[in-house]
Amino acid sequence: MKRWGLIWGCAAALLIFGLWKIGGEEEKGLEEAVVTTGEPMQEKEAFSLEMIPGATAKDLAVLLGAPMKKDPGRYGYQWWMYKEGEAPILIGMYEGEAVTAVVFHRVKHGDVRVGDSYQTIGRRKTLQRKFPLPSEGPYTFELSEEDVRTRPLLPFEEQWSLQLYIDTVTEKVSAVRLIRNDFLLRQQPYRLVYNGALPAAEYLDREEWEAVQEGEKAQIFALTNYIRKREGADELKEHKEAGAVAYRHSEDMARSDYFSHHSPDGNGLKERLEGISYTRAGENLAARYVDPTAALNGWMNSPGHRKALLDTEFTHVGIGVFRMHYTQNFLTLP
Predict the structure, then answer these.
(1) Are residues 210 and 143 in the same domain?
(2) Taking burial as the number of CB atoms within 10 A of a residue's CB, which of 57, 75, 78, 234 is the most buried?
(3) In terms of Cα–Cα distance, which of 161, 190, 189, 162 is closest to 176?
(4) What pLDDT, in 10s, does the model give residues 78-131?
(5) What is the DSSP string of 228-268?
(6) Number of folded domains in the chain?
(7) Do both 131 and 242 map to the same domain?
(8) 219 Cβ partners below 8 Å, 6+ apart?
């Protein structure tokens, strides 16, 4: 007997922003080293996404050197973080091979690159509302108009796809994700129509979740500062006490099934930050995004969240991740 199904996955992600000042009313919110050997040095081959499918750890060492950081991911692969210049490169490794990669800078090769305008992409490529995954079976993603405008999908190779993150303010590609289709199906980032059974979700125990959450917290911190520096703002310092506050709020929202700056008991950011010295504070919330890259893209495409993330008066940030809930607490210290 055939079984047809439809799920929404992470298509309906959530965002909310708020800003507070001490002594004032709450403002309106939205609910390398040089070595001389005598031998001619070989020029390192320029990195491009075309090199990712099938790349091994040895391949990546030749291309990018040693990763700065390794963290577990929520979909079975391990995130390896690299830098090329100031820009981060995230590569997901599974059973010794790269299965996904995210770039935030304009790599040398490729007909779709960071910095390309949305209009240019539209002239070069057909941006589809329906995106079948024949390599995986009878599965089809159905993208909304908003999905096509902010995070369109493109076929790459038989078993791979490209996901473009569009900055709707600049109307340019801000990041590109290359992902193997079986892992794209695990993420389910769009409305999914299918016939048959879905692949089993990755099971994580409590310790594994805690490791994933710590890794994603570090990713959000690194990506936030990269974006701020790119946009002309100073980098933020980590505020661990505010991070603990942010984590507890993310956990509370997930466990109590709400999404708001105010908890069911009426307490808001001001009450949660009690005991922490600051002159100004703001809070970004996100939920149901597949990972930090997706959440950052959502924040940057929302005016209030973008303003907070790039605010030049903020000096510190505390970040908390619990399951699929993300909280940023921004502070200006006295």
Answers:
(1) no
(2) 75
(3) 162
(4) 999 999 999 999 999 999 999 999 999 998 777 899 999 999 999 999 999 999
(5) HHHTTPPPPEE-HHHHHHHHHHHHHHHHHT--SSS-TTS--
(6) 2
(7) no
(8) 71, 79, 81, 90, 291, 292, 293
Q: Which of 194, 224, 239 is the last residue of a domain?
A: 194
Q: Which residue type occupies 66?
A: A
Residue type, 286: A
Does this model's pTM top 0.70? My answer is: yes
Whether the Cβ atoms of residue 320 and residue 250 lie closer than 8 Å to each other: yes
Q: Report the CATH number at residue 59.
A: 3.40.33.10
Provide the 8-state DSSP code for 48.
Answer: -
In this structure, the answer to whether residues 290 and 255 fall within a common structural domain is: yes
Measured between alpha carbons, how far is 174 from 104 in angstroms, rounded to an integer?
6
Query: In Å, how far from its chain's centre is CA 214?
Result: 14
Q: Assess contact for 283 and 18: CB atoms under 8 A.
A: yes
Contact 215, 32 (CB under 8 A): no
Find the domain containing 315 and state its range: 206-332
> Which residues lie below 8 Å from residue 315, measured CB to CB, with a gap of 6+?
234, 236, 237, 331, 332, 333
SS3 label, residue 219: helix
Token pair for residue 292? 């930090």
Q: Is 9 helix (H, G, I), strand (E, B) or coil?
A: coil
Residue from 235, 191, 227 nearest 301 by CA: 227
The secondary element (H helix, E strand) that includes residue 268 is: none
Other residues' Cβ atoms within 10 Å of the Cβ of residue 262: 14
